[in-house]
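Model the whole thing, not chain by chain.
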Amino acid sequence: MTATRIGLLVASVVMVTVPLWVPGDYYISVCSQILIYAIFALSVDVLLGYAGLVSLGHAGLFGLASYTVAVCLGAGLGHVTAIVTAIGLTLAGTAVFAALSLRTTGIGFIMITLALGQIAWGLAYRWVSITNGDNGLSVAHRPAPFGIPLDAPSHFYYATAVVFVLAVIATWIFVHSPFGASLKGTRDQPRRMTALGYHVWLIRFYACLFSGFLAAVAGILFVYYTEFVSPPTVSLTSSAEPVLMVISGGSGTLFGPIVGAILIEIVKNVASAYITRWNMMLGAIFVAIVMFMPDGLVPGTIRLVRRLLKFRRKESPAAAIEPTSSGPVP
Amino acid sequence: MSIWGVLAINSITFGGLLFLLSAGFSLIFGLMRIPNLTHGSLFMLGGYVGASMVLAYDLPFWLAALIAAVAMAVFGGLIERFLLRRLSGSLLAQVLVTLGIAFIVADFCLMVWSGDPISVRTPSALVGGTRIAGLFFPTYRIAIIVIAVVVAAILWALLDRTRLGAMIRAGVDDPQMARVVGIRVSRLFTIVFCLGAALAGFGGFMGAPILTVYPGLDFDMLPLALVVVILGGVGSLLGSLVGSIAIGFIYNFGLVVVPELAYFVLFLPMVVVLVVRPQGLFGKQAP
């Protein structure tokens, strides 16, 4: 527990001081991007890690929020109206997504979310009168909450950090609540949960709504961050990225997706400075992680370290009695 | 001929191509329980390989088609044997590996064949039109329809009339029992994967004169295959055939009637089927 507290403290200090020691505006922006994707990864993790449902269509929800903000602002509405509409529409969209996808679970869920995500992409690409097709929509200016304009990268970073912290707290409460426990129950033992009188479908549906809400928050931050949205935002690649973040960091934890988001975004930004083949690299990382570290880099590394420690302890028989199971990450 | 007649022919042609794509997809899904997300990539890669054979090496059209099919069968076999086999038992990992490979293939094709669409000339014997019952039909499209019907017939005979087909059906229905009675299900996996990949590659090349081959073709076709299987039911040949033709019509008519929502109209049959019959029209099991 103390280790967790120290970790949290260090993380908060690092997060608050980022604009002070990071060299240059570009890197501050990269940090904002990491936080946005961390929220998006948390959204995917709520379903993947806690409900056992893998969504490959989350970019559809993320993009719906982004596009709604852009369209509302384009129509001359205010920021508050745009944000509220975006959250409302995305929740409605999530409800439709969930109602259809939850007709099945497991592989069927993956397939249907993928198809729905691609249909959302098709809409972004083809519905030119609303989305401006391939050219995308741009957002004229960022909002100024409490009179503080967010145009400077460091200002935007702090705004994103505040939202990020709120999102993490909300997710923490969500997964540690009795509801979160019942959600994990539906992941591990759906039949027993039904027998105990839980409405498994409804629990999953609410989890989808919460996940959709987080995706909407990330999508809204994203459109203000780039001040632009176009069909690639809704593509399968951007649905796959948060899934990769969750899997690489370790699913079913809050820490994992955040670490995954940091890793993948750094790789993406560093790699894009040297090579232009991000998609190939994304695919290669995907294959490598699934093949060699199926439970994620964080638990995988912990397991590796434990195995090494155990290996060393084996030499002194007195310390050989040690629980071998690699428990969940704190 | 009226615009609607032309559209109907185009729809059936597109349905035929979709059948070549989705029959293998559906069989793989039925047997291995995973949606093979590289299937669209195999379609595109088959198109590129075949087109290169015709354009760069000046090979005859049908030889190029054969090479495309064989190349994709080998590629599919390698994926199955060296990646999916190692992950047997973990469905999610298998799906994610196929997704990763799909990204790699997409970028590889962009690197090798650049971003411009590649078109293949229609084989000279099939240029022009054919007069059937007083109406004039484009010959190449008729040929695709005939090929799709022939492939459907061969697949049906293979699955329904041969020993191998009986083993595959047993594997689809109950893999554990099939193993118990001595069927080597893992070898069936490889055979079916190769077959499905070959069909997808062949379909990609057959589609090249009509659709052209372009970056993004893979993820244009993949959701169509998904929707066909959701519609027709997993592991059902008849389901893929009916689903393909239905989606061919809906997609093509959608493109003309509501061009902005062409992708969105695919959503409607999917919604209806999922609500009324989640296992698909001809499926036995929910996907």
